Amino acid sequence: MGALEPVRNIDFVRTLSRMSGRSELVKKNMARGNKALCIVHSLKEKYELPQEQLARYSGELAEIEAANEQCRSCTGMDCSHKPEWKRLMVQADCTGGQFSLRVCPCRLQQEKLRQQRLEKLMDTAHIPVNYRQDTWTNFTLMPGNKRGLLLATMAAKENISLYLHGDCGTGKTKMASILANERLKKGLSVLFVSVTELFRTLQDSFDKSGNKQKDKILPLIKKTNCLILDDMGTTQRTEWKVAILQEIIDYRYANVLQTIVTSNYSLPELKDHLIIRDRSGKVQEDKQASRITSRLEEMCQVAKLDTPSFRHKREDILS
To answer: Which of 12, 87, 119, 147 is the residue whose CA sits 20 to 30 A from 164?
Structure first.
């Protein structure tokens, strides 16, 4: 077999090379064109836009689709969007056959913000530390608390006020705290107030700075979405204390605000306790007591918790 002869016409070789290059370029352009047509066809199925608008904004729409795909697989550790879209969800608004870009916080960012709001609400709610993480699964259903638990679970979902009464240790505070936790999860402002601590705080502020602190504290208590008044009736009654209670209850009654009251007393017993008497026991003032209990009776569902004391059970276990 003879040796290959060298190609003598170098121009012919260059022509073939140029033709080959053009052929590859044509193929690439055709591929790009086919891909663009596929994208436009795909976008046409999803977005109600005229053909002209689809062709004009196909690049932007394809970029939005890619960003949404990134969102679906995102774990929240690192956002892959371009800088101006970081921590955002992007959507195409095609209302009226016109394209516009709509952005909102990403789902993970929204959950993070929701959790931050919940933590802030929890910090200001003053729910007893022992009960802050409790849910209804932490509460034991017994025949003596069945009605109370039913009403409390309803009040956790709706704007229902409750008056929970019963002996010490029957779970009134725990039940009210769990209800408060559930209301917090719905984004409502909640305030858990020990009536004894309330009067002590107001009295201290009055002694130190006149009514200034009182004027700051009472509006917060009166206006919060859900107010828990724990252990009403455990403090020594005075005209000033009864007047404070009436101011709070009247405001919440008038504005249909959810109020949860716990007490060792039934409503008739609470009324008797709040009546102002002199040293001999003679009634000096009973209108405020009547007004408070009348308001509570009208605004609240009433339930008695009649169960063995949880505190006594705990003491028996430890002994």
So the answer is: 119
